[in-house]
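Milestone M4 deliverable, item 7.
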Amino acid sequence: MKKIMILGASELQLPAIQCANSMGIETIVLDFDANAIGRNEASKFYEVSTLDYDKVLEIAKFEKIDGIMTICSDRPMTVVARVGEKLGLNTISYETALKATDKGLMRKALFENNVPIPQFFICRTYEDVEHAVNSIQGECIFKPSNNSGSRGIYLYDENKNLQDAYSYSKQYSTDNIVLVEEFMKGPEVSVEAFVINGEVNIIQITDKITTGAPYFVEMGHTQPSSLPNDIQSQIRKVAIKGIQALNIDNGPAHVEIKVTEQGPKIVEIGARLGGDYITTDLVPLSTGVNMVELTIKNALNFPVDIKKLFLKSSAIRYINDELEIPEEFKTKVTYYFNKDIQLSDIKSSNDRRGYYIIQTMNLDELDSVISEIQRINERR
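Output delivered:
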């Protein structure tokens, strides 16, 4: 029996644990939270931080693992890569993991490889921030150098307090570095890709809905994209160029892109599966491709073959109030709501109370179902 180490036992990692179990693979799962939801699903569980390289390596050697991975989470990727390099496992390089998790290093790599990106400044001090804002001369996005889930994202303009914007973003950065970037206007998408022996395979393009300014928390995703085919072709080319610029030579990649008046430009790239149920749920529902299984096979150096089984439509919509789902839609809709989360300003993905996921035959039917759910619940 092959052994795979999975860093993380939260809800995000649960699909990986369950999928590996179903494949007859022994799961060695680590998480600092003794009560993590994936604990009882794991073959073996260790109460260890996924960021503790020395401890993770020690356990990996003891268990004689055949592969190591994490899904939908940026921060453990550097540990995955370091352990992979040390033990000769099939992971991305540590250098690539750094570029894919540190936004400053990522921007530098993309810039050096002529990948379309916004104007950016890496700021270590308040004086750096002042210089960046004066140079951009317009709306700016503030973001911490090494966080995710929309944490620390803030849209600044001349009507807002610069120190407040800087302080808000900086508090979410573990290295106290903040990126200040030109604010890009236009539709936002993500690209779900998988790299096999250096070849980038684009599996799906996902349309994105956010709360907008100032925090831009993601509130919905739809597959496939409804953008024109020529725009989607440009998106694919930019995504591939970005993935190659970071030297992601195997495994999944999740690329976030804004379609500006100057063309598609990269927001960020993750050397991982997309979160928010994009790759664990929406991709299988719209294409039949199980990207979690692909990631497990890749980590174990098994042959990986990508075959789209069908082309349907799928979507997730995040909500902050309970919903009534019409009886005729219940076979098409998965619904979840957490009553324990109190209503608050939505500043990050943690502030969302629930969601519903839909699969339909096409985008027209998808739009119709969503519109009807919204109409019924507006009358309540």
